Here is the input.
Amino acid sequence: MTDLTLLSASDLRDQIAAKKVSPVELTRAVLARAERLQPVLNCFITIAGEQALAAAQVAEQALMNGKPLGLLHGIPFAAKDLVNTAGVRTTFGSLLHEDNVPKEDAVAAARMKSAGAILFGKTTTPEFGHKALTDAPLFGRTRNAWSAAHTSGGSSGGAAVAVAAGIGPIGIATDGGGSTRIPAAANGMVGLKQSNGVIPHSQVADAFGNYTYVTPMTRTVMDTALMLQAMTGPHPSDPWSIGLAPQDYIAAARPEGTLMGKRILFSATFGETTVAKDVRAAFERSLGRLRELGAELVELDEELPDMEPVWKTINHTTWKARFDELIRRDGNRMSSSLVRQVAMAAEWSGADYQRAQFQRTEIFRRVQRWFETYDYLVTPTLSRTALPIDQDLFEPITIDGVEVGELRRNWFPYTMPFNITGHPALTLCCGYDSEGLPIGLQIVGRFRDDASVLRAAALYESSEDWLSRRPGL
Here is the structure.
C-alpha cells in the first residue's frame, strides 16, 4: 500500500470512491502522522482525534451502503484556528480565547463537512492572524516544513506546514494581506486568495469593506480547485457573494491545452523591491516555461504607487476598532507585536481611513486597466525564501546578506495589493534556493475569473516536476 500521506486529495477521492482506501484507515494514518510530527513542527493548536474518527466511521458506512458521495467524501482536512468549527476549540491563537468552543461552523467549514470532508485539527496562527510569522504566547513557534531553522511564514503558517508535511492533504487557511500565499510560498504549497465573495466569509466584522478571505491550502492546483468548488457559492452572511454563480473550477484545473493567445504582464520587483538572486533566477525560469506554453509576455514598466501604506491604514485601523478594548483590559496577556501594531493606528482619524479607501479604489481601477489588455499578471510571491525562525516582525530583513528594511514592505509587497483590490491571486512552487528552500510564483487574474487563474497554474504546474520533491522529515 502506498503511504496514504503521499497522496493528493484528488487521488484519495478516486481511491475512496473505488473502495480501495477506507476513510477510517486514512484518518488513522493522518492522526498518526500528526502525533509523530507535531512535537517537531508545532503546527497544531488542537488535534480532534476522537471527533475525526467518529466522522470517518460515518463516512465509511455511507460508502459501504452505496450512498451518494460528496465532493471530498472521507478526506481529512485541518482548519486554521481563526475559522470557527462547531464543537472543536477555536482559540484565534489567543490566550484570551484558550477555551473557546464555537457552537456553529463558519460557512466555509460547514461546506467542507457537507462535501464529506473530515475535520481532524486546528492549525496554528499568530494571535488573530496579525503577522506573517507564526508564533503566539498560546503555543510557541511553528517551524518551516523544509528547515527547522526557518519560519513557516504566516499567518496561516500551521496550515501550510501541515499540508507540506503530509499531515492531511488539504487545509482551510485565511488571507488578509498574504496570509495564505506567504506560508504557501515559504513551504512550497499552492495557496489561493480567491476573488472577493467567491468563498463567503461569515465571520468578518466589516463585510462591506472586507479585504480578508477564507481560503484553500493544498499541495496541488487540482486540490485547490476541489476545495474551492466545495466552499464556493452565495450566502446571506456575505454581500460580496450574493448573486455570484460558481464556476467549474475542477474542469479549469485540468492541465489541458496551452496558453496560446494569452498575454501575461510580469514584474520581478513590482516597484522598487530588492529581490534575492535565487528568487529572480527561478522567476525568470518560470517566465520561460510560460512562454513555452504559448503565452506572450510583456514586462510591467509603469511607475507604481506605494501600496503598503494604503493596506496598513485600512488594516491597522480595523484592528484598533476590533482589539483596542481587549488590549486596554488584557494587553499584558496578548502578543506584544499585535499590541504595538494597534498602537500605530492611534493617531489615524476616520478621514485617514476614508482616504485610504479612496486610494484602494484607485489601485483597483489601475489593476482593472491592466486586465483590459492582459490576461494575467505574474510576480514572485516573496522577495526571498523563508526568513530565519527567530526573525522579529519589527526588525529589518536581509536579502543575499544585505539589510533591506522592515519585513512587511520588503518581503511580501506582491501580495497585499490584491487583498484590497479583490482580484484572484495564486502562489505555487517555481523552484528552490541554494539552501533547498521553496520559491513561490504568484499568478494574478481578472476579477472573479478564478477559473482562469487555476488553468494557468495547472498548466505551469504540469510543465515542471516540483511536486516530486518533499520535505526531508
